[in-house]
Amino acid sequence: MHNNILLSSFTLGDLRIDYLKNENNQVGMLLLPAGLQNTVFINKSEIDSLVHVKVMGDAYATGFASGSSLRCSSTTQSLQYLSQHTVKTQNKLEIITALAGDNGIAVDHHIVLQENLKAVVCFAVVKNKGEKDVTIEMITSFSLGNLTPYAEDEAVNQMILHTIQSTWAAEGKMLSQSVEQLNFETSWAAHGMRSIRFGQAGSLPVKGYFPFAALEDKINHVTWAAQIECASSWQMEYTRYGDGICMSGGLADREFGHWYKNLKTGEEFATPHAIVTAAMGDVEEACRNIYSYLNTTISSVDGEEDLPIVFNEFCTTWCNPNIENIKKIVDAIKGKGFQYFVIDGGWYKTESGNWEDDLGDWNASPKLFPNGLKEAADYIRKHGMIPGLWFEFENVGIHSALSKRKDWVLTRDDNIIKSGKRIFLDMENPEVLEYLNQKVVKQLKDNGFGYIKVDYNETIGIGCDGYESLGEGVRRKVLATQRFFKKMTEEIPHLIVENCASGGNRLEPSMLKVSSMTSFSDAHECPEIPVIAANVGRLIPAKQAQIWAVLRAGDSPQRLYYSLAATMLGRICISGDVPELSSEQWNIVAQAISFYNLAKPVIKTGDLYITRENVSSYRKLTGYQATVRMCCEKNQALVVVHNFTNEDTIKISLGADANPQICSCFGVEKDQIEIKQNVLHIKPPVHFWGCAILLNINM
């Protein structure tokens, strides 16, 4: 046992923070659900420092850490408590804890609590107050130790580690593994650091994993979870060297992400923010806490409050837009409830005919648009929609004149970085920024576009030249991209910005904050769309998540209901063979839009609950999925059901006192739904069938 004492405690809303100090004046913290009265064992583990910092030249932690973890370095071990103060505003409390260590290193640890929110923001600022320059090889945005504090021992068969995996067109699959399955138990002598470090290196922050981690105590029903706000290289890490488990995260460190940062005397560096929670419940409840934080703190731009419907012609023309087919599509969808019409890739193609090879010059094709893009934009506006235009302005193709400008593009080891046929512009270069101001911002302005879809289809990788480390290079270039996003909206007020990266490869908070909406996936017309959309919906606000329904002339009513029901998991985006749809098919689309308009308040603010039965493979779906989005403000619930191969009645519980009343249905008739003791009973008529139900309920 250890001799830890309570330094201070703060409670705001549903969260409590206990700061602990040991006899060596080191400080750690416990983040706890305020309403849980279970005994907390503060002395079962050594103090885990509020911040972990590794300085070049430090000793690594003992117990075989070198090569697998930079935590618990000699600088971290030297950090001593100096002071703590708070800054209060009307509904916020910021706690700043000052630490000082060897080599003149000082760290301010920040936690921001906000009333009525169930997650906190955590970050650190490291300062060089010494007489010599230092190089930081790792610094955490957050670190939680002594997990679980509700068990006096090592909590055998009690702890579950959760990650959210992500690949192209299969975003957001949660993986849950026990400590025992991961061989993460402590040793007989509590010796030997265990470390599980994961994340990504590059400029696609959701390539491999979401920047998310969670640790669940299934006996005491508490889950700790965190999400990093970082669009460049990041990492999460679970470590163990005793009974308690530590969970931390932030920028990818030198070993994992090729990052280190020089600090001259008097300089400081702030980490990315982390959103952190302690939930009374399982990992799904922890996700709802983080989701609620993002949904509340990310504001909609003007005109977006009503979640307008998008049409994108990508799956209609397949990167072959021209003035004739754009007008034909507009004529087919005008007056049917669409507010945005997006012209996707290919409008700039040269005689090469390849939309990827021609990235970068951004001149409208005189063959495809002989009178320029303004004719198309004007035609779209004339018929009541806001025109949008696709760009992938951070990259250039091999046929672009810019591909030869080595002074304008990113290099590594003095070689131009190439990923497939793509080359990356230097978003910090003033000449590049002026070029993009002319080619992107001015082109949008001059032609009357009010919407830009920003795509990004490759990753820089481990980093680029220009700074002290490759990882610092990619961090700085990604921040420059985000500044350009902000510049676009400053130059064009009310501009709608869509964040896309081969679908969902940039689904992380810092990109959500500079965008109006985001593409959920490139799984445009796959049966697994509802599963991916629900997965993404754990952490991405539905008011920003653009869910596609690609409609084909040969689609049966069953297929249309299946596709359109999935869009109720976020924002509706339509593509496909709209000029060829029959009146019967358009009637089903109209039903979907009418239902969506009724369900918007629930989509915007409701909490998501996912039920799945026998769903394993995404490509060969079996069983069924049912989601419920509960909205306390409106006393309503939105139920979306997708049956894959299930033969039995689907039962959906709505809570003991819900008293549900059917308000509206899509894809199912009221007499096909039976309500027994607050449980919906739905018998799917066929395989691969979808529906949505809006309910009035007691909350």
From TrEMBL:
Active-site residues, record numbering mapped to chain: 455, 522
GO molecular-function terms, A-Z: alpha-galactosidase activity
CDD domains linked: GH36
Domain of life the protein comes from: Bacteria
Alphabetical list of Gene3D superfamilies matching this protein: Aldolase class I (3.20.20.70), alpha-galactosidase from lactobacil brevis (2.70.98.60)
Leading EC class: hydrolase
Pfam short name (any one): Melibiase
Record bears the keyword Ubl conjugation: no
BP GO annotations: carbohydrate catabolic process
EC id: 3.2.1.22
Catalytic activity: Hydrolysis of terminal, non-reducing alpha-D-galactose residues in alpha-D-galactosides, including galactose oligosaccharides, galactomannans and galactolipids
Keyword annotations from UniProtKB, A to Z: Glycosidase, Hydrolase
PANTHER family recorded: ALPHA-GALACTOSIDASE C-RELATED, GLYCOSIDASE FAMILY 31
Family: Belongs to the glycosyl hydrolase.
Name of the protein this chain belongs to: Alpha-galactosidase
Source organism: Hydrogenoanaerobacterium saccharovorans
